[in-house]
Structure formats: C-alpha cells, structure tokens
Amino acid sequence: MSAAEGKTAGTGEPILVVRELHCHFGGIKAVNGVSLDVGRREIAGLIGPNGSGKSTLFNLISGTVTPDRGQIRFDGHEIGGRKAHAIARLGLARTFQIPAMFDNMSVTENLLAAAAEGHWQGARERAADTLALLKLEHVADNRASDLSGGQQKLLEFGRVVMRQASLILLDEVTAGVHPNIRKIIVEAIARLRERGTTVLVIEHDMEMVRNVCDRIIVMDAGRVVATGPFNNIVRNSEVMQTYLGRPQ
Ligand SMILES: Nc1ncnc2c1ncn2[C@@H]1O[C@H](COP(=O)(O)OP(=O)(O)OP(=O)(O)O)[C@@H](O)[C@H]1O
Ligand SMILES: [Mg+2]
User: Fold this and answer.
1) Which element (helix H / strand E) includes 118?
2) pLDDT tens digits, one per residue of 77-105
3) CA–CA separation, 81 and 244 (whole Å)
4) pLDDT at 1
5) Measured from the CA of 65, which atom of ligand 1 is nearest?
6) Most CB within 10 Å of its CB: which of 31, 50, 86, 106?
7) Could you tell me the pLDDT band of residue 73, with boundaries at 50, 70 and 90?
8) Does 220 map to a domain?
9) Residue at 37 is within a domain
10) Would you say the CB of residue 25 lies under 6 angstroms from ligand 1?
11) CATH number at residue 221
12) 210 pLDDT higher than 50
C-alpha cells in the first residue's frame, strides 16, 4: 500500500492542520500565528511577497525548523517539533528552494536513492516512469552536478515523486526555469493529483497558480491574510495590490 492510500485516508479530516504556529529568528517573526488546513487530494497554492514566511512555514511543517509554539497535525499525527526524518517517514516529502541532490550520482541513481528513503517497491520501474514523465531520459546517466539549473529543478521534483508521499510541499519548483520545463512540471503535478497525492505549492508565477491550484492561501508578514479560489483572490484587489504588488 502506498502512503497515499494511508490508514487515515478518507476519514474526512484534512491531511494537514496547522494552528497558531509561531517561529521567530531574533527579532523577526517569520511565522506569526499561522492557522490553515489542507484537504486530502487538494492542490493548494501558497503565495505572498518575499520574506512573508512561506519557506519557513514549509521548514516548520517538514521538521527542519522547530516551532516556538502552535500545532501541526499531519495525517492524524501531531508532528510539531518532530525530527525531519520522522515526519518524512509518515509520508511527507518536500523540495527545497535550492535543489538538494547527490551531485556525484547520476540522475537515475538520485531517483533510486530517493525511493530508498521512501517506498522501494518497484523503484526501478518507477524511476523509468519518472524519467519519462519529466523528460529526463536523455540525461539519465549524467551526473546531477552536470545538469542545467532547470534540469536540476526537474530532478529535485522527480526525487519527491519517487518518495510516493501522501503530502508533497513544493517550494518554487518553477522559479527561473524555461517555460518548457514549467509545462513539464505542471503536467507532472496533474499526474500526482490523479494518484491521490496532496500538494502544497509555493509559487510566485500567477499563471502557474491559476493552472494547477484548487485554492490559494495568501501570506504576508508571517500571517495568512486570505484564502480562497484563485478567481476570488484575484478579484480581491486589496490582496493583489498590497500583498503581491501587481493588480490583475
Ligand atoms: N534561518 C533563518 N535565520 C534568520 N532569519 C531567517 C531564517 N529563515 C528565514 N528567515 C527570515 O524570516 C523571514 C521569512 O523568510 P522566508 O524564507 O520564510 O520567506 P519566503 O516567504 O519564503 O520568501 P521568498 O519568497 O523570498 O522565498 C525573512 O525575514 C527571512 O529573512
Ligand atoms: Mg521562500
């Protein structure tokens, strides 16, 4: 059974519940009382200006930073303050804003290593599928460090796909990539949705957000300031001007 078909699936409880989460760095309240829910099989977009706390929120959820206070409930487990590897084992996978991979290993080896961290069953077939999905077949044997920046973003994404997680956090996977690579990623997210995976995606590209997200969560200065479907958020011109700096 994959993590996406986990034991609490179908209970109706959101897969991710965050309540009154706080985290500060010195005098900076990076996350300042965030509460949000993400439903099972939802593709939710997390947007907001630079420095609004989006990546810190991902760090708190995935266990790379410890919260000052607040609750994080993932798939029925209280995970606030738990270690990153323990949270990953529960079925959560994430990308980093700066891709994290094994530079000296090939693309295929990187994918297999990711499978070894999660579900190994059928790993070789899945690696082949992932290479095809992300159109990386022609560089399958290349070292990760020799890939272009865009291809490294794809590989980072592929490593998350290989984990077969029930919740995936994507931190700006399309930032600075060629539109062709963005298209590949958008299609791959659609495949994840079909598979039953829940995805929370940090994204600055509004076209991408419009294309892939069921619902948008807007952060500013460490807080959630708006949530709703894309069209409602865009219609809220105050949110668009104040928090995104670009009325649409
Ligand atoms: N490890 C850290 N040490 C000190 N300050 C930090 C640390 N991580 C984040 N911050 C600060 O916390 C605030 C929120 O940063 P964060 O990276 O979460 O923002 P973001 O919304 O992801 O921004 P961006 O869109 O630029 O990626 C910023 O003021 C940042 O400088
Ligand atoms: Mg960030």
Assistant:
1) none
2) 999 999 999 999 999 999 876 767 889 99
3) 31
4) 39
5) 1
6) 31
7) very high
8) yes
9) no
10) yes
11) 3.40.50.300
12) yes
